[in-house]
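Notes on consecutive records. When two proteins share a document, each keeps its own sequence and its own token line. Never mix them. Below: protein one.
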Amino acid sequence: MTTDRNFAIADELASLADELGSSSAAVALAWIIGRPGTSFAILGPRRLDQLTDNLDGIYLELPAEVRHHLHDISTPSNAAVNGVPIAELG
């Protein structure tokens, strides 16, 4: 879904990746596979350079403050979805 919020998250991810000297794809993958309960991630590169970026994420160790920041900016608000608060969707 294309929203201003999603673009803001992507921009922040790109900024963090620049600070870490990495790609957005590698940082995103490192964050996802480092989350508790995640057993695997499905990659979908079309080109070799995209695959390389993805594979870099497997070995990337994100600092705790980066992991926490990504969690904070990506956690959905408790806004209504189709009129039903998220807490009630359980």
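Protein two starts on the next line and is unrelated to protein one.
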Amino acid sequence: MKISFKNDYAEGAHPAILEALMKTNLTQQAGYGLDDYSLEAKALIREKIKNPNAQIHFVSGGTQANLLVIAALLHPLRKRYCPRYCPYCRQRNGRY
């Protein structure tokens, strides 16, 4: 079987994730990162990186995470340049 990682939206969820979702599907939680699962995940990440004061924010996907990093690193007036052969830019611009 050939495995290809096209992007983070092209694959289904791991069976263990689906099972966890089935167990918690009817549990009501606060939204926008204030749910028990997000708070627990943030605590675990802070523990792993040994920084109890770390600000941790979850985003919905890899593209959003990439845009946040690019925006944080570049001056607002600078343009992001990407070569034509760059898979990231080709995928986002619809050119393969």
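For the record: Residues 41 and 56 are 9 Å apart (CA to CA).
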